[in-house]
Amino acid sequence: MKETEQQRRRQQQQQQSIWSPRERKCLFLLQHKRNNTRASLLQIHAFILRGALETNTNLLTKFITTCSLVVGIHHARRVFDQMPQKDDTYLCNTMIRAHLETRQFVESISLYRQLRRHSGFSPNNYTFSWLAKSCGLSLANWEGQQIHNHVTKAGFGSNLFTSTSLVDMYTKFGAMGCARKVFDEMTERSQVSWTALICGYARNGDMDNAKELFDQSPEKDSAAYNVMIDAHVKLGDMECARRLFDEMPERNVVSWTNMIDGFCNIGDVGSARLLFDTMPEKNLFSWNSMIGGYCLNKQPDEALRLFHEMLTTTSFEPDKVTVVSVLPAIADLCALDLGGWVHQFVKRKKLDRATNVCTGLVDMYAKSGEITKARQVFDEMPEKETATWNALINGLAVNGRAEEALEVFLKMTHSGFKPDEISMLGVLSACNHNGLVEEGKMWFKAMGEFGLTPKIEHYGCMVDLLGRAGCLEEAETLIDSMPYEANGIVLSSFLFACGCAKDVERAERIRKRVINMEPWNDGNYIMFRNLYSKESRWKDVEEIKGLMSRGGAKKEAGCSVIEVNSRLWEFIAGDKVHPQWEMGIVMSVIMGKGLPSTQMLNLALGTLYSRFVDRDVNNFEDFHVAILDIFNTFNESLPGKHYDAPTRKEIEECFAEWEGAKESERKKVFIEFMKKKVKLSKLDDATMITGLVTPPAAMAAKRAGESVPQLRIIKSIPDVVFVPSATVLALVSVKLSRRIFQGNVASTS
């Protein structure tokens, strides 16, 4: 094969030595990268036609190759079809390969048939190799067998390149017997031949033969190892995958990324991250894999941190896969600032032509409460798929717009899209959120008309719908008649409904099942404890507490996340790791007791001084950094407000006074300095405290309110609306209270 290619090049060089100046000029223009544009190539084509240079097949071959990559395969084929003679094998192979590389597999096979009928074309080993690849990728089984017959008749059955292509073709058909027969008849085999057959066995699930062939392979390269690792990863057998990975003589990026994918798929994100951090070289696929792994394992905060790290520490630019991976994380955390940036990036890079990217944007905006923007993205999409309709239906459902969700669903069916299980889940969810019991029953029964069988998720949605509507008997009957074993989610939904209706008898009927199924679920124990407490069944309350302790269930701490200046802040009840937890505790106590204004500021600044001293301030530079850090804390915690940091001269004066003071007097110096700089004219202390405490408190209150049936309307209010509204109301309340207090003081005096 190599000799044939070398002969071809020598022939070209000899022919080029006798080319005319026009032909040489044309070749020079084609080889120059600056001319690889549509306009330039069309001009070169005109130059070829004017100079009657189309008879030079080598020149025309170069033009067709360049043209198929730049202008388009259709123009290249038009030029080829206009040629009077098509007997040059190299030129014909170039056109067949151009169709293959542009994924026009049928056209490459069709061109071969046409050439065989109407020209003196003589195929060679390259011809059959490209055709076998086209047949394999298009799963054209019958045509592939015909190509194999032509290979045998033409005498290329023993050619290494052609035989390897036939092995690969048959493995793609799943015809492993034919692939093995071709492989066994090969007089010469390369590592590519071995890898092709190993890959075929692994792809078709025959790991025994794949392993046997892998062990027999004389020279195992990275490709062979990657094939085996990938097969074990898809089977979830990470132990074997890790063993092969450790045996590899030379690992490449594909090897590392395969292992990262595998660990993420089985939920071992820690091992995946360890591999990711120790990779000697990363590419965009590696970053996408790790970001996607975090999203898959419900760790959106880590996904966004890694995404931010990729943007700030590498030169990689997000692609479609990155965007599709990161959008679910943004949606889970309602990080709308970052979501807006990603949307602008998508528009700037023209990624909005990809349906899956736009579907992700619809889903992100809808889950973040921005249903108007979600609808806008949806309406602007040139093409939609079922997943796109599903994203909008589900978004409308979770935002409490049941009627709109049902309208969109009907529009989807009228537009020729067939609903799937996710579509019906969105419809049932919409009915559930708005208490549309009859509509829910109707659509649940209509699933059969769409050729769909209800799954456990659909039954769970119906049980929740009936339970919330107070139809406990009907819900219980549905659970008993389900073709599936009720899971923890279904039973917990029914238990919650029994709790709301105070139906202890029905709750006790599922008590053993629900606790045995989910002994770690603290919500079930709490629901039973509350039910028994209302009935004054204290003995049963104690029994539930014992079961909870033995089951290892612990009440999960409340958690809320807010976005400030594109940064995510997480607040967990009882968490002392957060850098500002002392300030939060102090502010909560102060506001609860309603202490006077001066005491508020002194106590808050006293807490800041404790943190200040903990920094181990030994010199002016330490003192300077500590003061600036305090002002950064204020500015980050109070969006929309800004405190000007002291100048270096002011800090130098304070440091001189602080350093010269006794240990007992230093705190007073610090507080007096801070009082001067935190001016009440800019933002009074009560307002400052309220601004710090209200956002996390509002988020926590909203999460708690969503679980109370009488307050479920809160769930329909987006976080981005609820939190700022609560903060503004709190700030107004503080201002009014302060004025009333000052008025009372003035009247009493």
TrEMBL record:
SUPFAM superfamilies: TPR-like (SSF48452). The keyword Membrane does not apply. It holds the Pfam family E_motif. Keywords: Repeat. InterPro entries: E_motif, PPR_At4g14850-like_plant, PPR_rpt, TPR-like_helical_dom_sf. PPR repeats lie at residues 190-220, 221-255, 283-318, 385-419. The keyword Ion transport does not apply. This is Pentatricopeptide repeat-containing protein. It comes from Rhododendron griersonianum.
